[in-house]
Amino acid sequence: MSGAIPHELGRAAVIGGGPSGFYAADQLLKAGFGVDVLEALPTPFGLVRAGVAPDHPKIKSVTRVYETTANHPGFRLFGGVRFGRDVSRRELRERYCAVVYATGALSAQRLDIPGEERTGSHPATDFVGWYNGHPDFTLRSFDLSCERAAVVGNGNVALDLARMLVQDPAGLAATDIADHALDALRRARIREVVVLGRRGPAQAAFTTPELRALGDLAGVDVLVDAADLELDEHSAAWLAECGDANARQNLQVLREYAARAPRGHDRRIHLRFRCAPLALDGEQPDGPVTGMRIARTAICRDADGRLCAMRTDAEEVIDCGLVLRSIGYRGQALPGVPFDADRGVIPNDAGRVLTEDGRAVVGEYVVGWIKRGPSGVIGTNKRDAAETVAKVLEDAEAGRLGPTVHQDASVERWLRSRAPALVTWAGWRAIDDHETSLGARHGRPRVKLVDRAALLTVAATTAGATR
Ligand code: NAP
Question: How far is the centre of ligand 1, averaged over its atoms, from the C-alpha of 327 (Å)?
Fold first, then answer.
């Protein structure tokens, strides 16, 4: 079938098969382009497969939308192809009329405090990749033998981590959590997770449904100190004048938690505010973490009017044997592609890639977290992709995009020469069938293959299928 489909506007390459890549692909296909999605992993769907917590299956059901995109005759998936290693920017520009970067933001921000690298301190990205069976994180190990863990950060990822650490693993056994993580969580001794926000409750980044869901966890008490919810003058004024609905609703839920008498469960999530990490302590200079030194903070306004955390002299140590740093993701530079190292994004004007000195690069575009930074929910990427694809179309209509000179079949042959274990959509379908039928035997949505070689072996059963 490949090579036989007319694409009125040429064929575009989308680099990255996560949500933003799929939304961009969908809109490009609808506009009349053919689309090849090049993905480094053997599996598509990015953070929907490797980021969304296993106990949130509804969020994962968005993959049905991406399957509809993949059914378009102009769509092709090439998994197992790494940009910069297997194919270069120049080579793609020679073969595609447009290249759209959709590589997300996979690295972790750093706290930059003493002791950050101690054993037992990990970026959230590693823990999330591990429990979700991302092949790059399968071999990580986490010592879950301590009773108290600390999670730094007040975003939705921090709440995901808290839930995953304290909930009864029996419930997780019915999800698509990676088997190695389920085994480890069954053996875990963690009884309390302290979640630390450096600013106050009105500035928390988590969304109210996620906050509310903590209170529904069976066998878990959610603890909030009423004193932590007393609003400083700046937060009170902000809430009264312009505060958003999410902040107001979060406060309401937090007040409900603070008023609740603990039910005496042996597992707890303690939400604390105005606590900034100062250092991770241990008994030996390079020994495992035994505690986190924090400074209590006060909310102040900075020169731009933003409410920020200012350290006070009050300090304390939270005893803990595991620290997860959940302070946001960060985009990585792609070889040869302009990059704004301060923001961790590809510089762009509404999706058109810009050179470091601000000139538009004809034929190169960007979508998703690598375009705007790591913010928003999955659906945010749909609007974001629409903005970028509008720019692709504008350039196509103005005749600024070169013609696609290579045949679809020759591009596929070239990709296979660079990445012999390439996974097409048919290969992914074989993996999907394999995982879901394993899952069906155990009452689970799927049992994930977590090892690259195993994924490639199953995908190879479809060798010869081009879509
Ligand atoms: P996030 O929402 O940006 O939250 C990052 C948190 O880290 C903020 O509370 C921030 O505090 C804190 N932080 C940053 N630097 C810090 C430092 N040096 N010390 C202490 N705290 C620090 O990021 P995220 O949780 O990684 O989530 C990323 C995106 O994915 C968000 O848009 C999120 O909503 C989305 N997501 C959604 C779901 C869902 O819908 N279920 C699940 C997971 C993720 P400040 O505000 O003070 O900077």
Answer: 5
Tokens of 222: 């959610």
Q: How much distance in Å is there from the Cα of 61 to the middle of ligand 1?
A: 23
pLDDT in tens, 398-427: 999 977 777 889 999 999 999 989 999 999
CA distance 41 to 126: 16
Percent of the chain with pLDDT over 70: 97
pTM, full prediction? 0.95
* Distance, CA of 103 to CA of 83 (rounded, Å): 10
Residues 69-103: b if buried by 16+ CB within 10 A, e if exposed: bbebebbbbbbbbebeebbebeebbebbbbbbbbb
Please indicate whether residue 152, judged by its CB atom, sits closer than 6 Å to ligand 1: yes
Name the burial class of residue 152, with classes exposed (0-12), middle (13-18) and buried (19+) by CB atoms within 10 angstroms of its CB.
buried
Nearest to 222 by CA among 167, 182, 185: 167
Q: Is the CB of 153 under 6 A from ligand 1?
A: yes
pLDDT digits (tens, 9 = 90+) for 183-225: 999 999 999 999 999 999 999 999 999 999 999 999 999 999 9
The predicted-structure confidence for 359-376, as pLDDT tens digits, reads as follows 999 999 999 999 999 999
